[in-house]
C-alpha cells in the first residue's frame, strides 16, 4: 500500500509540473486548485478507499484547504490533478466527515456531490 501512496504522490507532482500557472483569484485565491491538490497527498488512500481511515496529516490538509472556502475544497477534490492521481471524488468528499471536522460545510454542493 505504501508503494501505491508513493506512486500517487509522484503522479501529483508530475501533474502539477505539467500545468500552466494561473494568475489571479480563483476558488483558492492565487493558487490554482490543481496545485493546491498536491496538499492532498497524505489523503491518497483515504480518497480512494472509504474504509481507509484518514491520517492526521490528511485531516490537517483538508482542514486547511477547507478554511480557505468550501469552493476551494470542492475545486481541489474535483481537480484534474486529483483525478489523475486516482482520487475518487465520491470518496474524497467524505473525508471532512471522516476526519470529524466540526467546521465542515455540511450540505455544500460540490459538482454532483454533497458534503456529508
UniProtKB/TrEMBL annotation:
GO terms for biological process: systemic acquired resistance. It comes from Eleusine coracana subsp. coracana. InterPro entries: Bifun_inhib/LTP/seed_sf (IPR036312), Bifunc_inhib/LTP/seed_store (IPR016140), DIR1-like (IPR039265). Residues 28-110 form the Bifunctional inhibitor/plant lipid transfer protein/seed storage helical domain. One of its GO terms (molecular function) is fatty acid binding. The lineage of its organism: Eukaryota, Viridiplantae, Streptophyta, Embryophyta, Tracheophyta. Keywords: Signal. Residues 1-20 form the signal peptide. Pfam families: LTP_2. This is Bifunctional inhibitor/plant lipid transfer protein/seed storage helical domain-containing protein.
Amino acid at each position: 500500500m505504501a508503494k501505491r501512496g508513493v506512486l500517487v504522490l509522484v503522479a501529483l507532482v508530475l501533474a502539477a509540473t505539467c500545468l500552466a500557472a494561473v494568475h489571479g483569484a480563483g476558488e483558492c485565491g492565487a493558487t490554482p486548485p490543481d496545485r493546491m491538490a498536491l496538499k492532498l497527498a497524505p489523503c491518497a488512500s483515504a480518497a480512494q478507499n472509504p474504509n481507509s481511515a484518514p491520517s492526521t496529516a490528511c485531516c490537517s490538509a483538508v482542514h486547511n484547504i477547507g478554511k480557505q472556502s468550501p469552493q476551494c475544497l470542492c475545486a481541489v477534490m474535483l481537480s484534474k490533478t486529483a483525478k489523475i492521481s486516482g482520487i475518487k471524488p465520491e470518496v474524497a468528499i467524505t473525508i471532512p466527515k471522516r476526519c470529524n471536522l466540526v467546521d465542515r460545510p455540511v450540505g455544500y454542493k460540490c459538482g454532483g456531490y454533497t458534503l456529508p
